[in-house]
Each structure stands twice: as C-alpha cells, then as structure tokens.
Amino acid sequence: MEDVVLSANTTTTDPSASQAEAQSDHRLAQEIEQLGGRLKAARQSVGQVIFGQQEVVDQTLITLLCGGHALLIGVPGLAKTRLVESLGTVFGLEERRVQCTPDLMPSDILGSEVLEETEEGKRAFRFIPGPIFSQLLMADEINRASPRTQSALLQAMQERKVTVAGHGHSLPEPFHVLATQNPLEQEGTYPLPEAQLDRFLLQIDVGYPDIDAERQMLVATTGAQDSKAENVLTTQQLMEAQQLVRRVPVGESVVEAILQLVRQGRPETSSIPEVPEQVAWGPGPRASQALMLAVRARALMEGRFAPSVDDVLELAHPILRHRMALTFAARAEGQLLDALIDRLCQPLQ
User: Fold this and answer.
1) Is residue 290 classed exposed, middle or buried when 0-12, 13-18 and 19+ CB atoms within 10 A define those classes?
2) For 207-222, how does the pLDDT look when each residue is reduced to its tens digit (9 = 90+)?
3) Residue 326 belongs to domain with CATH number
4) In this structure, are 49 and 170 located in the same domain?
5) Can you give the pLDDT at residue 71?
6) Where in this protein does the record put region Disordered (predicted)?
7) pTM
8) Residues 235 and 310 in one domain
C-alpha cells in the first residue's frame, strides 16, 4: 500500500511550470467533481435496499475506493450479505460468496489441479479456479474457517495472486474481500491472526438500525415487490476512481495527525500513560497507510478536494480497532478498546 504524499501548498518560480500545475489542478478538480456525482448516485442506489446503515455503507464504499478489504462485524440479520451483493451490482463487479465452516479446505477457496488425459493418452494437470477468482469475494463468517483455510487468503489479500502447487495465478482486477463475522457465538470459531486482521483496511461494526429505518425496512421488504440496487459505475470507472484517490493532495497537518495518532497507540512510542499500561500491541505502519488512503476517499465522497483532520478522527476507530489489542489485565479491569482510541484522538480535537 505504498503512497505518495502530495502537499497542498507547492510553490514554483517558473511561469510555464506554474501554468502547467494550474491546469493539472483544474483537471484534478473536474475529475473529483465527476466522481463525487457518481458516488452520490452509488450511495442512493445502495440506500434503496440497505436502510439505516449509512455509516456502514459509507465505510464500505471507502474500502472499495481505496482498493482494500473490509471486515464487517455484526449480529445476524443486519443485511451484511445483502450489502455485499448490492455493492457488486452497483459497481458491476463479479461477486462470489464462500460460506466458511470448520471443514472448509483451502482448495475450496483457491481452486485445485486435476489430472486429465488427452485423446492421445497424454496426461497433464489442469487448474480449476476457485471462488477467490472474482472481483468481490464475500467470506461469510470467516472466523468459522480453520486457521489453515484462513491463511489461504493472506497472499491473495496482500499480493493479489495465489500459489497452487507451486504455480502463481493472478487474481482479477480489482480484487476485494468483504468478510463477515458474528460477535455473539464464539463456540467452534477460530480467532483471526493478527497478520490477517492487519490486511483488512477497515473493521466495520454493524449495529441495529434506528426505529425510523426499521419501519422503512419493514414496509419495503415485506411487500409484493422487493427493491434492488442498480448499476451505477463500471469496473473500469471504479479502478480509475481508485487511482484518483491516490492523487488527492494531503496537507502537512493531516499527515502529522495521522503519524501522531498511530504512534501514540504504540506502547514503545506513546506519551499517553494509559497506553503502555493497557496495550499489548499497537498499530503498525499499515495503519498509517490505511488512514492516508481512507481520509482521501472520505474527502472525495463528500465532494471535498482535500482531507482534513476531522477525517482522521472519523476513521480512527475502524482503522485502529482491529490493529490494537488490550492486555489481559486491562480486559480484566473492564477497559474497552474504543475508549482508549477516544483517548488517542483527544489531542487532535
């Protein structure tokens, strides 16, 4: 997730260079405005089938704009599966679903090689791709899969390819994993390892809708006709939007806010007394990279040409909550990770 920081305040003494820079900025502004209109239409399309989860929808859209993966955590019945299906329709992505169970094998996700014999009697192996060869993979209840199967996703999520029988196979572009997890029932589940959690751009907590949204959902989903999302963007337009996100300028104050927030969450570098006492391990460099991309995407979704420190504060929880862990003593005392993240955000407010 390599990124280039673009300063919002660049100066030059060459008139021709200044004119070229102004034209480049003008084109960038036009592209941002056009993308903002498309994203507004995408949000409206998803809103036709997902009620009362605007923050969840926005964070999932941010994940796709950044080219990343998301972990959606919520109790059953909160439309997590339907959200993934709707996003596949809105962006024109080839979407597949894998229901994770303890007996699911890596080959059930990646694919396998079979031995075939030709008419001439020659034998050769042929690779049969698994469901991971899609543009939008939903791993439902990912924590029910065994550690061996979970690890099969590590290379795919980071390198956009898989290795089967010593042969590498590239995945389609774009490639996104949206995994779901049930926080209630823990029997027969396997906690995700830290290395895999770190590969998720955001951890999105899905809560219950408010009463007005639930009333709207009751009327819309129990009638004779069920509303569906509509295609708004093409796959090519999504990939162009992902490139545009990386071109959005970021001011020095936002860069410093990101660095301060992430480094204050590490026991080794934090000046906040609670952190060394309560944190077992803190966020790594991927947290800074994820924040840099996510604040740019959030600014684009709101029609702004550059992110602000407020974007950093809004995305601190979904970026950090799966990249930090409390000590056993802190958990025993009833400390909460969200409260600690709030403490990390206080100096930036």
Assistant:
1) buried
2) 888 898 888 888 888 8
3) 1.10.8.80
4) yes
5) 94
6) 1-23
7) 0.88
8) no
Residues 108-124 pLDDT 10s: 999 988 888 877 778 88
Would you say residue 114 lies in a domain?
Answer: no
User: Residue 259 falls within a domain, yes or no?
Assistant: yes
What distance in Å separates the CA atoms of residue 207 and residue 53, rounded to the nearest whole number?
8
Residues 240 and 269 in one domain: no
Residue range of the domain that includes 287: 248-349
202, HSE (Cβ side, Cα atoms, 13 Å): 33
| 96 and 172 fall within a common domain | yes
CA distances from 115 to 105, 120, 127, 250 (A): 19, 14, 9, 53
Q: Which of 247, 262, 294 is the last residue of a domain?
A: 247
11 contact partners, CB below 8 Å, separation of at least 6: none
Instruction: Determine the pLDDT at residue 108.
Output: 92
List pLDDT tens digits, range 273-307: 999 999 999 999 999 999 999 999 999 988 888 99
Instruction: Give just the sign of the alpha carbon dihedral 98, 102, 106, 111.
Output: negative
Strand partners, 170: 161
Rounded CA-CA distance 279/298 in Å is: 28
Write the Ramachandran bin of 84: left for phi over 0, alpha for psi from -120 to 50, otherwise beta.
Answer: alpha
DSSP, collapsed to helix, strand or coil, labels residue 19 as helix
Q: Does one domain contain both 64 and 94? A: yes
Place of tokens 């806010």: 257
- In sequence order, the β-bridge partners of residue 70 are 178, 202
Q: Quick check: is 276 in a domain?
A: yes
User: How many structural domains compose the chain?
Assistant: 2
Contacts of 17 (CB under 8 A, 6+ apart): none
d(CA 154, CA 159): 8
Give exposure, 273-286, as e/b (b: 16+ Cβ within 10 Å): eebeebbeebbeeb
Residues 345 and 268 in one domain: yes
> Which of these three, 208, 231, 247, is where a domain ends?
247
pLDDT value of residue 91: 92
CB 141 within 8 A of CB 181: yes
**Residue 152: inside a domain, yes or no?**
yes
